[in-house]
Every structure is written in C-alpha cells, then in structure tokens.
From TrEMBL:
Residues 105-156 form the RNA polymerase sigma factor 70 region 4 type domain. PANTHER family: ECF RNA POLYMERASE SIGMA FACTOR SIGJ (PTHR30173:SF36), SIGMA 19 FACTOR (PTHR30173). Pfam families: Sigma70_r2 (PF04542), Sigma70_r4_2 (PF08281). Belongs to the sigma-70 factor family. ECF subfamily. It comes from the Bacteria. Interacts transiently with the RNA polymerase catalytic core formed by RpoA, RpoB, RpoC and RpoZ (2 alpha, 1 beta, 1 beta' and 1 omega subunit) to form the RNA polymerase holoenzyme that can initiate transcription. Gene3D superfamilies: 1.10.1740.10, 3.10.450.50, Winged helix-like DNA-binding domain superfamily/Winged helix DNA-binding domain. Coiled coil: none annotated. The keyword Lyase does not apply. Residues 7-69 form the RNA polymerase sigma-70 region domain. This is RNA polymerase sigma-70 factor. Keywords: Sigma factor, Transcription, Transcription regulation.
Amino acid sequence: MSRTEEFQELRPLLFSIAYRILGSVSEAEDAVQETWLRYADSPTEPRSVKAFLSATVTRLSIDVLRSARVRREAYVGPWFPEPLLADPYEDPERAAELADSVSMAALLLLERLSPLERAVFVLREVFDFGFPEIASAVGRSEAACRQLAVRARRHMTEGRPRFEADRSERDELAARFFDALREGDVLGLQDLLAADASMAGDGGGKTPQLARSVTGADNVARLLAAVFPGLALVDVTFEPREVNGQPGAILHDRDGKVLQVLALDVLDGRIQAIRMVANPDKLGHVGPVGDVWAVHRELQEARRAARLDR
C-alpha cells in the first residue's frame, strides 16, 4: 500500500480527532492536510502509520487550539463550534462515544478544558487510545497523561450532556418541532420544549442574531413563533438535517444558499436547547453562503407591506 493510500484510509479518523479538539471543520481540515504534508516529506517509514499520523494531527491541533482560544475570548457574542453534518469516522464498537462527543453540547463542554486535557480526553475517552500512544502524541509522560485524563474526565462528567437514546423518537420529535415552527404554533412549540429550554445564536457580530440567550419554554416558543413563520414571506426554507449527531436543520434562501444552521438537544421527550449558527465564516463547508442581511432587509419590507395591506 502506498503512502497516499495509507493516509486516505486513516483520513476519516484524523479529521474526527482534529474536529473534536478544535470544534472547527476548516481548522480540522487544515490540520489533516498539514499532517499529510509532514508524512509525505518524512524520509523514513514510521513503525505504525496510524500512531504517527494520529500523533501528528493531535500536536498540530493542540497548537492551533492554543492560538484559537485567544481569538475566541474576543469573539462577539456566544461562540459555537462549526456545524458538522456528517462524521466521516465510523466504529460500531464506539458508536455511542463518537455520537455523544461530537454534539454541540459536548464540544462546548470540552471548551472548558485546557488544550492538553482536551486532546488527552479525546484520544482516550472517545477513540480509546492507550496511554503510551497518548503520551507520544502530546509529548508528556504516561503518568502525566493519566492525571490529565482524570482531570478532564472529572470536568466532563460533572456537566456531560445526555441525549435521547431512541433515534426514531428523537427524529419524530424534531419533525413535530419544525412543523410547529413553520406554522408559528406557540402552544405546539411549548409542548415540545423542556421547561428550562434555552435558545442562543452565534453570528460572530456579522449577521442579525439574538443579543443574548433566551430561556424558558414560554419565552423561547413565543420568540420562535414571532420570527420563523415570517421567513416564508421571503422564500426561506428549512432542510431537516442531522447536525453534530443531533436533529437540526439548514435554512436556505430562495437561491438555495445557506443562511443558518440549527442544532437541537433532545432529552426525555423534550427539546432542551436550540443553537443557531449564522456566522458566515462557519458555514462555507455546508454550502454557498447567502446574504443574511439582505434577507433580513427584504423580510422587514415584506412585513411592512403586509401590515399596509390589512
């Protein structure tokens, strides 16, 4: 097998490691590409290609995360991970760990860890790497990595999200939610939301977005019903999709361009959280990005015209 073939076989794993460490599709792809360049330029063949590539992409991701954390501290409004529509790595034996670890809630929880803790947690708890491999990847002793793993596991366990285990029930609930959303059915939305449900948006200061998080089923339902049904006036459509392993949707303008991605957290038959990513810098991998401001202005004009016609 050639180096190119070996790399392509492991590429899904490398991307999945990098994405969980970074929470960014574009940065994860860059880390994977740089890993390939280093492998291609290596004068010797590593004893274990998987170990070499995994260690390389982990180190690169840690370096990127350290600088990214500084930028995120100055981020305008809530910061959410870049939405992931499909995880390329599959492992039936670790399907549950893989699905839970890629959710928006889990990635936001990982943000609380140091870059080293995050990398160790991802390699150990998600991908089941041994401590010798982890130590080589992060440049620390096995004993130090065990301590990092204990601290990371404690932080994650304290706030680790739980999700609806029955996929069919979860998807059926999401379908009812989007139907109620299109119709502006306040009572229907309230019935689907947890009492302490929350909604927040990530626009990065570049699109119209919520000024702050909204909490409580009544508040969230009324805001959703006031905003989303009117989008039909300007031909905005919803495309239900799985987002970060959970139910979600992509909002498109009339030309099919991406305006926003919604992700839902579902537990105990209710929607616990709604996260909306509208920052255009985070949507390019989803598809061509539309002009949210133009849609917003058109919607305001359509609503004014509708009021005048009454």
